[in-house]
Amino acid sequence: xxxxxxxxxxxxxxxxxxxxxxxxxxxxxxxxxxxxxxxxxxxxxxxxxxxxxxxxxxxxxxxxxxxxxxxxxxxxxxxxxxxxxxxxxxxxxxxxxxxxxxxxxxxxxxxxxxxxxxxxxxxxxxxxxxxxxxxxxxxxxxxxxxxxxxxxxxxxxxxxxxxxxxxxxxxxxxxxxxxxxxxxxxxxxxxxxxxxxxxxxxxxxxxxxxxxxxxxxxxxxxxxxxxxxxxxxxxxxxxxxxxxxxxxxxxxxxxxxxxxxxxxxxxxxxxxxxxxxxxxxxxxxxxxxxxxxxxxxxxxxxxxxxxxxxxxxxxxxxxxxxxxxxxxxxxxxxxxxxxxxxxxxxxxxxxxxxxxxxxxxxxxxxxxxxxxxxxxxxxxxxxxxxxxxxxxxxxxxxxxxxxxxx
Length: 406
Prior knowledge:
By secondary structure, this protein is α+β, with helices and mostly antiparallel strands. It has two domains: 2-224; 237-391, Reverse transcriptase/Diguanylate cyclase domain (Alpha-Beta Plaits). It has 15 helices and eight strands. A six-stranded mixed β-sheet has the order 2-3-1-6-7-8, with helices on both faces. A hairpin with a 6-residue loop joins strand 7 and strand 8.
């Protein structure tokens, strides 16, 4: 009698947990109505909540409604949990496969055997197998993650989904060797209560993992927005300074700072408009991004001023690179009101061997060198410790694919 009462009570509790998290996700949908993964996750809680209620109220519904419809709703919830996880990580949702699995439940028992007990056994084995597959697929999606994105809690998703996949596959022998008693109003079995309790715990774990994953993604995006210049996609001044200063403090490797300023940029804005000016900034930033690699940091540090820090390199190599950048930029063309316009840049250089390992010292030296480059004609580079002016006139244009990462 205690087991009979505990199974429906636990199922009802499980359904209430589904409803609670359904409300939470529905609130999230109000702020992100286009989020496909939230819609799938909402269905993954709504469907089993209704299915659990149908099974709890089994004595008051026809068998096809309580057993088959209830099981279909549970399978729908499992499929939506996988689809929600898949779309969360930016992959398309293959709806056909889940539909085949869900509605494959209907004819299975009838085709194999017409007896009520055998149909129930086949239905249980089918549901356990499908649940194991869907949970394994969800674990695989968490393991793959999203390209270019690292969410620490993704491995918690692998653990939670993967463990419950193993639980369902491991439970396959139970309906065979210890069949559920279906002669009563509520199915009875020694292992059924354990599975319901595990489902309750797993539901809570999955919900929290999903919420934490979403929270981590928001935090990463906020941090990215806080550290990135919105117009050019380069690091902003604060992030650039922090990255360079961190490298200077944690390693003894040499480095070179190059500070760029677009020549007569105000004239471009005044003559062609700020929209064209923005295009010029974006074109120049795109040129710098071609240099970026594991040992190169690029940033926009204000207005038309940019900076590049190259780790482990200094001396004549950097002078040649600066001259090539000047020449490469001078042939860039940007659409303007009266056709395509050209622009140039001046560069000031400093390195750790002459200016020390403090960012402010490096920047002051490079900024002074930039001032001298502009004063002596623009469209050229100058080094703080150089005695002679270095004019940007190399025989070849910089290869944008060479990333200084070798």
